[in-house]
Each structure stands twice: as C-alpha cells, then as structure tokens.
Amino acid sequence: MAEKFNKTAINFSYVEKLDILIQSFQDRFSEFKKVKPLLDIFSNPFTISVENAPDSMQLEIIDIQNDQDLRNKFNEGDLLNFYRCIDKNTYKELRINALKCASLFGSTYICEQTFSILNNNKTKHRNRLSNESLEAVLRVATSKFSQI
C-alpha cells in the first residue's frame, strides 16, 4: 500500500490496530492448531494417514478405511449421519472424537450467546438485578422455548 499511495498519506494508526487484530485472531484460533489432526480425522477418516493419527485411533482408522460399505455411506455426504451409523463398539475412539468435534462449535456459540445476554442484562442501569433474577433471565433467554 505504501508503494501504491503516497507514504505520507498513510495513517499509521491503522497499522497498529491491524497488528492488534492479527494478534487477536492468532490468539483466538491457536487452539485449532492443536486439534487440527482430530478435526482432519473427523472430516474424512478415509483420507487421513494412519501414521499421523493418535495411537488409540490407528487400528480403527485402518479398519474403517478398508470397509467399502462405510466408505459408501460416508460418500453420501451427511457427516453426522455417517458417525451415527458406525458401530459404537468397533469404532469407539472415532465416535468419541466425532462427538467432541461436532459439539465444539455449538458449545462455543452457546457460551458466547449466554455471555452477550448476561452483558445486556447486567448493565449500570440494571445494577439491582439479583443473582437469582439474572439466573432466571439467562435460563429463559437460552432455552429452546424462548426462541419459538
């Protein structure tokens, strides 16, 4: 950008804000680097290299990669339905991994939603709201029935 525009016209305060934003994204998503191998197994257990899988899952991955019926079921496209179909005794570790991965994003959303509701209800104008009342507000706001 400095080459394209006059260097003196660039507002360098944006540079600092962009650096902070980049660092914030790196901090927030650094956890995904740790669970990437497990997410890769979840998204496609048929293409993952067995050597890169955790020891507890390697035999199950070998078995599932050699099962043509399960491969066909996987290719139908519904990932969660695929994991419902696999035998829970034969592929115990893969199912546990699938449950963890599938719940990862939904539970994060619920936590963030609840925190936002808490912040909206516990303001300086509503500082007399007791903990019991706030708990009731959160319970109603996050229940499935309040969204009907």
UniProtKB/TrEMBL annotation:
It holds the Pfam family Dimer_Tnp_hAT. GO terms for molecular function: protein dimerization activity. Residues 73-138 form the HAT C-terminal dimerisation domain. InterPro entries: HATC_C_dom, RNaseH-like_sf. SUPFAM superfamilies: Ribonuclease H-like. This is HAT C-terminal dimerisation domain-containing protein.
